[in-house]
Amino acid sequence: MANAFKIYLSALVFLFVGTVFVFNPFSAVGTFELPKMIVLLLAVGTMNILATFYIGQKFFVKLPHIYMWMGVLLIGQLVAFIFSADHLVSLVGTHYRHQGLLTYIHFILLSLHSYWFFTLFPAEQTKIVWRWIVGIGAGACVFAIISAFIPGTLFSTAFFEQRIYGTFGNPNYLAVFILVMLPFVFFSIDLKRLSKVGLAILFLTTLFFTGSRTALLVVGAVFGVYWAWYLWFHNKNGFFVGSILVILSLGILVIISSSSQTDNAFWERFSWQDKAFTSFETRLTFWQAGVEMYLDRPLVGHGQDMIQAHIMPYMPAHVQENDLFYVDRVHSEPLDMLLMYGPLTVLGYLGFFGLALFGNKCNVFVADKYWAILATKLSIIMLSLFLLINFSTITTNVFLFFLGGYLVSQNTLSKKH
C-alpha cells in the first residue's frame, strides 16, 4: 500500500500542478483549457489503473448513498449528449472550454478517487495534499504577478484592462482559483503565523490585481460572516469592535470610490461610475436570453458546450450585430448547466454537493482537528457564490470535485467513529 499511496499522491499532484500551470504557449488568450483537459485525462487515467491493479478489492469498497446523486448527474450528462445536435462537440467540448461529456466523466471519477484516497490511507499520510495545494496556489500567484511584466502578447494585461491572469487565460479564472485556495492558507495548522501572513498578503494582492469585483465581494462576505459568527459565540467584545471597524472601512471605501475619477481602465473598475456596471448589465442580457433558450428545451438540455451554437437568436439585436460578442456561456453556472445538461444534471450536482457540505456535523471550530474540513467547506461555498454570476473552468471543477470527494470521505469516517 505504500507504493500505492505514492503513486496516488503523485497523480494528484500532477493533476493540480498541470491544471494550474500548463497552458498553450501558442495562444494569447482563451484556449488555455486544452492542455488542462489532457492533464485531467492522464491523471485520472493513472488513478484508474492504480485503483484497479494496486489497491485490488479495496478499490471496490461500498460507496456511501450520497453517490446516488452523482449517478443522477451522470445520467443527466448522458441524456444531454444523446439529444445534442453535435455529438463531437458534446463529447470533447469546444476549443475555448473543453468541458464535454468526456471531461465531465473524469470529474466524476476524480470525486470517487478523492473519496477512496482519504478513506483508504491514514490522515497522517494524506495531510500532505493540503501543503501541496497551498504551495501550488502560492506559485500560481507569484507567476501571475511576474508574467504581467513579461514582454510579448502571451500574458499581456492589455487584453483585460491591465488585469493579471497568469497561466489561466482570463483574470476571472485566476480569481476563482484564489478563492478556492484562501481558506487553506488562513486555517492551516501546518503554517506558522508569519508564513500565514505572508501568504495571505500574496494571495489577496494577486486577487486584487485580477480586478475581479465579484471575487473580492465573495471573500469579504464569506470571511466576514464566518468571523462575525465565530466572535459572537467566542468573544462578543471582539464582535462589536470588529463590526465597527468593518462599517467604518466600508464607509471609507464607498466615499473613495464614489469620488474617484480616473482614465485608467483597471482602477475604473473600482470606481462608482456607470461604466463599472457595464459587465453586470451585459450579464442581465445574457441571463434573459438564457432563460428563453432554456424554456425552449427544458428537459434534456442542448448538449455539452452547445450554448454558442444556439443562443444568438435569443440575444437582442445589438449583441447579434456586434462581432465582438462570442457567447458560449451566460455567466451563471446554474443557468449554464440547465442550458447544456438539463435539470437531471443540476439535480444531481446540487444533491451531491449540498449533502457533502451539510452532512458532517463536526464542530469546525475545533481547529486542530477539523481545520481542513472547515477550509474545504468555505472553499466550496465561496466557489459556489462566485459561480452564481460566472462560469466554471476545468481547474475550478477539478478542485470542486476533489474537495467534494474529501468531504464525503470525512462524513463517512465520522460516522464510523
Fold blueprint:
Elements: H1 2-21, H2 33-53, H3 67-82, H4 87-92, H5 101-120, H6 123-126, H7 128-147, H8 171-186, H9 193-209, H10 213-234, H11 236-259, H12 265-268, H13 278-295, H14 307-310, H15 317-320, H16 333-341, H17 343-358, H18 367-387, H19 394-416
Helix pairs in contact: 1-2, 1-7, 1-19, 2-5, 3-5, 3-17, 5-19, 7-8, 7-9, 8-9, 8-18, 10-11, 10-18, 13-16, 16-17, 17-19, 18-19
Describe this structure in a few short sentences.
This protein is mainly alpha-helical and 417 residues long. The chain is 68% helix and 0% strand. It has one domain.
Features:
single chain; 417 residues; mainly alpha; 0% strand
Describe this structure in words.
With 417 residues, the protein is mainly alpha-helical. It has one domain (2-416). Helix content is 68%, strand content 0%. The chain has 19 helices and no strands. It has helices at 2-21, 33-53, 67-82, 87-92, 101-120, 123-126, 128-147, 171-186, 193-209, 213-234, 236-259, 265-268, 278-295, 307-310, 317-320, 333-341, 343-358, 367-387, 394-416. Helix 1 packs parallel to helix 7 and helix 3 runs antiparallel to helix 17 (343-358). The radius of gyration is 22 Å and the shape is globular. Its main location: membrane. It holds the Pfam family Wzy_C. This is O-antigen ligase-related domain-containing protein. InterPro entries: O-antigen_ligase-rel_domated, WaaL-like. It is found in: Membrane.
